[in-house]
């Protein structure tokens, strides 16, 4: 049996997400990862590094703008402390693998990870686009992290107030955008939507003073181990491919040994799967009175319902301009016709 169009689209989304994580053939020159305090980007960045090493044999270059800790899976660390953007670019190009423009496929690729673009967007927002464009080569791919819940304070001097927001510039430049959210929080929002109630807020969106209480211990449970990735990939043709995935990371000991995470579509996760209908469709005996609003009708009930002729059925057909939906009435003996009234 041939797969349906919906199954084909799901398989295409999974293959595209896997290709993006593996960084094969330069799937995305610039991937923008939007994380928050509720869901940091550490697990997905580790997945990028592990898969790029195993699948593409890529060289991992980690550029630190806002952290001092070295990434365990990076081959080269580049610190931007007290350095100009030109000096950072020069040091980056020195660590890039050699590339021959005559070769169609470079012998080795490099994955450059920028740990946080918020300091750069705050100190030099006008140079953000030029800096990212100058460090991208045909043999390299960039994965840049932007903290979406960190407020941006532009420099007081030499800043164009009419310039677009740095996040809007990054979103425009990126060929792939990944929005991260916590799995347990998405489950709670899904339950609220099913009950037709207001979705809960977490983290800074709660509007509470003091300590953030969004991250709770229940995330350690089996139902909440992982994160949700909202993917948007821009193709060369201009078309965008979107999809939501659940990435389940292995335990910490296995992760340190290089174990890869598993992922699936959001709708395929048990917590988001729709409720299965009972076989036969109709209600069983003892389930209560049947109703016309029951969505589980049998085939005979559907045929009987389609065969019912509604009253004034002829008036529902469009018989002329402005005459559709008119009222048809047959006068009886007891009716007194009044000439002054409009003609029926």
UniProtKB/TrEMBL annotation:
One of its GO terms (biological process) is tRNA wobble uridine modification. Pathway: tRNA modification; 5-methoxycarbonylmethyl-2-thiouridine-tRNA biosynthesis. Its main location: cytoplasm. One of its GO terms (cellular component) is cytosol. It is found in: Cytoplasm; Nucleus. Residues 272-300 are annotated as: Disordered. Keywords: Cytoplasm, Nucleus, tRNA processing. It holds the Pfam family Elong_Iki1. The keyword Membrane does not apply. GO terms for molecular function: tRNA binding. This is Elongator complex protein 5.
């Amino acid at each position: 049996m041939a797969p349906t169009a919906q199954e084909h689209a799901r398989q295409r989304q999974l293959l595209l997400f896997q290709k993006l994580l593996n960084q094969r053939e330069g799937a995305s020159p610039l991937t923008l990862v939007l994380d928050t305090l509720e869901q940091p980007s550490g697990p997905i960045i580790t997945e990028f590094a592990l898969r790029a090493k195993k699948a593409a044999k890529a060289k991992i270059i980690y550029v630190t703008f806002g952290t001092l800790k070295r990434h365990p899976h990076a081959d080269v660390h580049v610190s931007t402390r007290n350095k100009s953007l030109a000096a950072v670019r020069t040091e980056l190009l020195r660590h890039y693998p050699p590339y021959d423009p005559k070769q169609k496929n470079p012998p080795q690729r490099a994955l450059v990870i920028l740990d946080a673009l918020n300091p750069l967007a705050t100190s030099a927002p006008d140079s953000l686009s030029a800096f990212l464009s100058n460090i991208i080569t045909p043999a390299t791919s960039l994965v840049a992290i932007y903290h979406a819940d960190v407020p941006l304070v532009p420099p007081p001097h030499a800043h164009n107030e009419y310039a677009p927001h740095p996040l809007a510039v990054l979103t425009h430049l990126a060929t792939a955008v990944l929005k991260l959210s916590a799995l347990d929080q998405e489950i709670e929002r899904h339950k609220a939507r099913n009950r037709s109630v207001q979705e809960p807020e977490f983290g800074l969106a709660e509007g509470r003073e003091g300590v953030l209480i969004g991250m709770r211990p229940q995330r350690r449970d089996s139902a909440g181990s992982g994160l949700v990735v909202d993917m948007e990939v821009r193709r060369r043709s201009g078309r965008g491919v979107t999809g939501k995935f659940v990435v389940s990371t292995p335990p910490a000991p296995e992760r340190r040994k290089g174990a890869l995470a598993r992922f699936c579509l959001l709708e395929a996760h048990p917590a988001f799967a729709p409720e299965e209908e009972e076989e036969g469709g109709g209600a069983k005996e003892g389930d209560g009175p049947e109703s016309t609003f029951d969505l589980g009708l049998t085939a005979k009930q559907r045929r009987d319902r389609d065969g019912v002729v509604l009253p004034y059925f002829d008036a529902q057909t469009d018989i002329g301009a402005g005459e559709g939906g008119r009222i048809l009435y047959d006068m009886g003996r007891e009716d007194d016709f009044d000439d002054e009234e409009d003609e029926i």
